[in-house]
Amino acid sequence: MRETVQRWAVERVLHVARAVLARDPTPARIRELTARAAPLLARRETFEASVPFAVGDARAWWVQPTGAPPGGVILYFHGGGFVAEARTIHDPLLAAIARAAGARGLMVDYRLAPEHPFPAATEDCFAAWNFLLSSGIDPGRIVFAGDSAGGNLAVVTAMRARDEGLPQPAALVLISPLFDLTFSGASMERNDGLDPLFRASSLRAIQSYYATGLDQRDPRLSPLFGRLKGLPPMMILVGSSELLLDDTLRFAARVAGAKVSVWHGMPHVFPAMRGLAAGDRAIREIGGFILENTSAATMGAG
Predict the structure, then answer these.
(1) Catalytic residue from among 90, 148, 187, 202
(2) What is the pTM of this model?
(3) Residue 268 bears catalytic tag
(4) Does residue 16 have a pLDDT over 80?
(5) Which listed residue (78, 90, 116, 268) is catalytic?
(6) 239 pLDDT higher than 70
(7) Given the residues 45, 85, 123, 242, the one annotated as active site
(8) Could you tell me the CATH superfamily of domain 2-298?
(9) CA end-to-end distance (rounded Å), the chain
């Protein structure tokens, strides 16, 4: 009964946000709604966050779950349509994943569009990877994780590392990822009105904020259209009613061995939302996947 009530409350908040964004999908409105909705939806986790520090032109901070000894490291790329960020929801999500994985997290506060359009965010995320590499941490202990636009940035960062001959992380965890900035997946129409958070018109507005005037099929914008061989093991999670469902399905069809799960009726980035049993189960599965791919490198690590 309690979960039923919580799920109703989550859907109510998301439906209100969807209606507002459908009328006014501007960066200012997205940021305002993110700030208002995040405290109503965010997981409740105990963790410590470091003082933010500079990483290139961006900032970053460590997120350490309280009482959890760290072994691996999760380099996290937050979502927000490339235009917004809310520590209120992303820090607890990272803390929950880190706790399940026996890890600590590094949150990248990359520069946001439209003030800083492409390629600013990709440069900041790549700088964060270089920061971790230069710190001496074994790449086999590190996993990239990201939600929504952050899932896009996680893959783009891994692709660039591959192309420039840098080490790869041990694995990628991608939650409700945005892989196609042309928004050409059939679910953009099929799930328009079913997705509890977005209308198709709201999502398409991202193009003009992040990459106006550019070729939206450029793999640095839409990794779906890039070369996907030579990337680390991947775990991808998405809700069945999401507009971005086909981003995951088409992407996974091109990545051999990708571990993909479609969660019935779950909203966009559902593991970030408190009170959802499916979200808790997804966090446990993510933790298990990270441990599976980092355990050998993290044995004895401090």
Answers:
(1) 148
(2) 0.96
(3) yes
(4) yes
(5) 268
(6) yes
(7) 242
(8) Alpha/Beta hydrolase fold, catalytic domain (3.40.50.1820)
(9) 42
